[in-house]
Amino acid sequence: MLTRYAGMLLVLAITLFPAVPALAAADTQAAPSVRSASKSTADHASFKILQQEFKSGPEVTRACLTCHTEAAKQVLRSKHWTWEFLNPTTQQRLGKKHVINNFCTAVPSNYAFCTACHVGYGWKDQNFDFGAQENVDCLVCHDTTGSYRKLPGLAGHPNYQDMEFPPKSGRIVKAPDLGKVARAVGKTSRDTCGACHFYGGGGDAVKHGDLDSSLEQPGKYLDVHMAKDGLNFTCGTCHLTSGHDVPGSRYAVTVAQSDTARMHMRGRQEGNPATCESCHGDKPHQHRQADRLNSHARKLACQTCHIPEFARAKPTKMMWDWSTVGRMDKDGKPYKLKDSSGYESYDSRKGHFAYESNVIPKYVWFNGEINYTLRETKLDPSQVIQINRFEGSPDDGRSKVWPIKRFVGKQPYDIGNNQLVVFHTWGPDDSALWTNFNWDKAIEFGMREIGAEYSGQFAFVSTEMSWPITHMVAPKEDALACKQCHTAPGRLDQVPGLYIPGRHGHALLDTLGWSFAGLALLGVIAHGAGRIVTSRRKEEQ
Amino acid sequence: MTERIYVFKRFERFWHWSQALLIITLMLTGFEIHGTYRLFGFESAVNTHTIAAWSLVTLWVFAIFWHFTTGEWKQYIPTFDKVGAMFRYYLTGIFTHAPHPFRQTTLRKHNPLQRLAYLGFWLVMSPLIWFSGWFYLFYDSWADWGVDAWLSLEWVAFFHTLGAFMILIFFIAHVYLATAGHTPTSHIKAMITGWEEVE
Fold it and tell me: In chain A, what residues touch B141 (CB-CB under 8 Å)?
């Protein structure tokens, strides 16, 4: 009753008075109830060590570590910190530190920019100390205020003074009050994870297609698990983390999890909690057509039917052509173009783009193994280079058909050595591509930075990168219907090794079958006509 | 000079027409599932096909029981006697209004060609369609049955489609030959009323 009146008053207040103060008032009233609902046994606001004006991130971390003695040690072992992953199957050394992709391409020589998304402070060059616990950034994941932000160019630090960002934009990003942020720390949230993962590839929704800022407040249609008015999952509900080790990584995708692993538990050694099966099991359908659908699930990943399209709330980047960098307008200045939907289609610093919404995924057999084209890998530039090849086949007994986003692009490679190159995109020097639009300098600088040999000559090669689609699971009503694969044009028409009733058949049998049926029909028609003609003749006689 | 004899009993007629309805439904939905055209929509086609198949199974259980308890199964014992005459009749005699070489009686209601064709239906087409259909329907249980290692959906579908084409051709000939009795409608009337006019 009270809440209803409060709601009416709020509506009145919003209608009658300027909106902002009214909302602010409502916020402060709501806050204590939220806090008292928390099950935490500690209120950081009452911790003595946090009652101070912090001057820098590492100062905060030192304070955190006085109680959380093991936290930083755990983070130091995590991919979030090392940006490194040794694939146990392929022995390829992966992670942001090593991989060259076809978005922003590579981290080396651009550290201070890229490490805005590092869970640490101060990674500005190759000499970063990966063992320094005080450099772990606790706040970026545990902030609950929304005021803590790391800007590109500051090597993972937040801005300690108010700062214009982006440069020359006239927009001022206020320096966060570190003490206030520290006193309000809590669990990770969609906002903290999303601050980096929604913006991968240089902007909202750019990279994944199934991860973008629409997941901060998703409706049920967009994400049946994370919907605010539904189950209200956070990222951590599935990526059930133990000791700062976050399970579920696209570097080692769990393609199919057997029912024995069905247990959504923190810190299990076997199994991956961030899979559909860890909650739903491997026979997830219970109602209509349950057996038939469950047998589909033996060959199809859950995602194949239950994420019928990606980029359903915001368009995602599907193409990035670096080869057209550096075009200038008639005044000799860099410029930007937008497509008919208002999304960037050209930027002198970055080249051409294409964005798409509601994209139907590509479907591939996938067994979880991924082979990367690394910097050392020799290329065949006459082919489209697979930045990462998803392995799998219909016959290996461990693959499932998975939906993927296929991202295409063009990027520079070394003609002399037939290898991808690292180039220097950003930096306060005259070699950065975004400063000088000079590829020669940018590549030379980048290759020198990683100590790699460069022939001095480059060209552009077409590349392709695959991204597993696994987030933004639609409500079951929106899952693929039978006809979307079983009638033409079928979603899985191009996937080999499947017999799909309605799409496949035996061509010779069909030809012969219809021919004989046709002949039979013609035969009876001719026979019948003959009978009619002869009986008429007889009548005439 | 014509007379009327009672050839098809009430259960037989019920069996025939409900079977006709089910087989037509199965063909219409089956070829849609096969991808030949769109009519009901894939999902409804599958559901209808499944229901019709189970209905036909049930009907056949009764029909088989009926055939054995009444001894009517003997109507399908093949004979080559007069087969040549039947062929000649359909090829020439029917046009010159020669007398039908077979005289229908209550005890021998099928002519020799019918006997062979129906026997073919019972012994070739129906096992083919039922066995393949059974495996198709229970695809979900292959792993439990341990047959998934050597059975492929592709071949099950092949034989099911093969059976379907054979039944379609049978159906065309059957419907047409229903008009080839003593008069064009005498067979059809018999299948409705039970009484056939014979010479």
Answer: 291
Give per-residue pLDDT as tens, A26-76: 344 434 444 455 788 999 999 999 999 999 999 999 999 999 999 999 999
Domain that holds residue A446: 203-480
Burial of residue A60 (number of CB atoms within 10 Å: 0-12, 13-18, 19+): buried
pLDDT at B95: 86
| Cβ of residue B96 closer than 8 Å to a chain A Cβ | yes
- Supply A173's token pair: 């990003």
CA distance B47 to chain A (A): 10
The H or E element containing residue A346 is: strand A344-347
CA distances from A17 to A5, A499, B155 (A): 17, 65, 74
Quote the pLDDT of residue A260. Answer: 56
The pTM assigned to this predicted structure is 0.88
| Interface contact flag, A483 B96, Cβ < 8 Å | no
Domain extent for B180: 3-198
ipTM for the predicted complex: 0.92
Residue A512 maps to a domain: no
List the one residue out of A392, A224, A209 whose CA is nearest residue A299: A392
A164 in a structural domain = no
Alpha helices in A450-498 (DSSP H): 483-486
| Residue A534 is assigned to a structural domain of this protein | no
Q: Tokens 């009638």 sit at which residue?
A: A487
Q: What is the pLDDT of residues B62-109, one digit of tens each?
A: 999 999 999 888 888 888 888 888 888 888 888 888 888 887 777 777
Give the one of A294, A503, A520 whose C-beta lies nearest to B140's C-beta: A294
> Within an 8 Å CB–CB cutoff, is residue A530 touching chain B?
yes
Tally A–B CB contacts below 8 A: 87
Contact by Cβ (8 Å): A492, A361: no
**Which value, to the nearest 10 degrees, does the dihedral of the CA atoms of residues A235, A241, A244, A245 take?**
-110
Q: What's the CATH number where B55 sits?
A: 1.20.950.20
Residues of B in contact with A506 (CB under 8 A): 154, 157-158, 161
CA distance A278 to chain B (A): 22
